[in-house]
Write a structure and sequence with these properties.
single chain, mainly beta, 1 helix
């Protein structure tokens, strides 16, 4: 499922909708940000729990570079691990 909004729409911006079971498996909560990764890039998107979405599926809104027929990965950002620097 993919929704592309237009300028002036009341609800806009990157969003990924997941079933509660899939969100729980990925340790994601409603309203949290997650990486949506596809063949052509990645985008941070707001997570929305939606049990009308089938398990192992997702609904996307305003994620550039992702086609509805492509497989995507939804990943929780790792904010706890410090970035490595070349010292």
């Amino acid at each position: 499922d993919y929704i592309a909004t237009r300028k002036g729409d009341t609800e806009r911006g990157p969003q990924v909708r997941l079933s509660s079971e899939d969100a729980r498996f990925r340790l994601l909560s409603d309203g949290e940000l997650a990486w949506v990764r596809g063949k052509r890039g990645q985008q941070l998107a707001e997570v929305v729990i939606d049990d009308s979405i089938p398990q192992h599926g997702c609904g996307l809104r305003d994620i550039p570079g992702v086609l509805a027929a492509e497989a995507v990965r939804v990943v929780k950002p790792d904010l706890d691990t410090p970035k490595r620097t070349n010292a």
